[in-house]
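Dear H.,

Thanks for agreeing to be a second pair of eyes. The structure we're designing against is below in token form, covering all 209 positions.
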């Protein structure tokens, strides 16, 4: 929303959240409520960053980065976690006694996701010293980031992988870092490598099993 504008992203956020919940087996009501909770969190975080704190999406200073982290990881995640947890109680998915624990779980996963993926997205599209010279290059870099995230997700969550598959996935991650450095230079590659490191604890929190 901070990159391309709020009105253009709200439909995608709603549809994407609904589809991801539907694929995971959630009911239509729960998928709809999760989408509305996500929209409310996005609106709250966007307003807090752009209107209340007057943050700059180029993230040119540490102050702007702190504003982004505060808006996304605290305000947006807090609103989303509260509404998501309440909707689960209303639907009978969880008992009321589990409200605090559910809020903490949702808050942790959401805030970490925003901190990692949101920062990477803003840097790749906004920071003059980190973003590729063309818009196509920015999307290409995001594609490599999505591939990296998928490889790490499989490594951390699939316990039935054999040794050959693990070696291939690790080699793929290393080759992706090399590809990014050759295509875009060392500064974007350094951010890409930081994403590689940060994704491991992030997925560990999101998927504790």
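And this is the sequence the design step returned. I haven't edited it by hand at all.
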């Amino acid at each position: 929303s901070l990159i391309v504008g709020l009105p253009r992203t709200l439909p995608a956020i709603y549809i994407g959240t609904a589809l991801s919940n539907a694929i995971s087996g959630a009911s239509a009501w729960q998928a709809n409520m999760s989408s509305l909770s996500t929209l409310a969190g996005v609106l709250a975080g966007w307003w807090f960053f752009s209107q209340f704190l007057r943050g700059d999406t180029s993230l040119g200073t540490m102050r702007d980065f702190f504003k982004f982290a505060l808006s996304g990881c605290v305000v947006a995640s807090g609103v989303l976690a509260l509404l998501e947890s309440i909707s689960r109680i209303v639907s009978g998915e969880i008992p009321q006694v589990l409200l605090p624990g559910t809020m903490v779980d949702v808050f942790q996963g959401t805030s970490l996701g925003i901190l990692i993926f949101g920062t990477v997205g803003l840097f790749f599209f906004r920071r003059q010293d980190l973003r590729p010279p063309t818009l196509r290059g920015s999307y290409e870099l995001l594609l490599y980031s999505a591939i990296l995230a998928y490889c790490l997700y499989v490594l951390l969550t699939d316990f039935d992988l054999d040794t050959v598959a693990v070696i291939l996935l690790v080699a793929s991650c290393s080759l992706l870092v090399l590809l990014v450095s050759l295509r875009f230079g060392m500064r974007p590659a350094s951010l890409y490598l930081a994403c590689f490191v940060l994704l491991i604890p992030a997925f560990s929190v999101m998927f504790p099993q």
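Two observations from my side: The mean pLDDT is 79. The chain is about 80% helix and 0% strand.

Warmly,
E.
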